[in-house]
Amino acid sequence: MDPLSTAETWAREGRAVALATVVETWGSAPRPVGSHLVIDGDGLFEGSVSGGCVEGAVVSEAADVIETGRPRLLEFGVADETAWRVGLSCGGRIKVFVEKVA
């Protein structure tokens, strides 16, 4: 199932859901703009925004977005102090918008 269909299904089931969307890339980012990761309130997720480089950080931030209802724009890249921690050492940059959808 694709992440958007999963988000709809999980919302219909009454789960708290956040949707992460790649909104900007630069360099060797492994996923294109428009890629999605859907996360539920228990931390389960489907999809990908970076091919495994930043998914853990996005899931962690999504928990706060679900709790507060406040969306946020996450930025990762080699110019960012989190680059080495999350694994974008290949030289790319990525911006991911995370919003609560249910």
UniProtKB/TrEMBL annotation:
Domain XdhC- CoxI per the UniProt entry, residue ranges: 10-77
InterPro entries for this protein: MoCofactor_Util/Proc, XdhC_CoxI
Domain of life: Bacteria
Name of this chain's protein: XdhC family protein
Organism: Hansschlegelia quercus
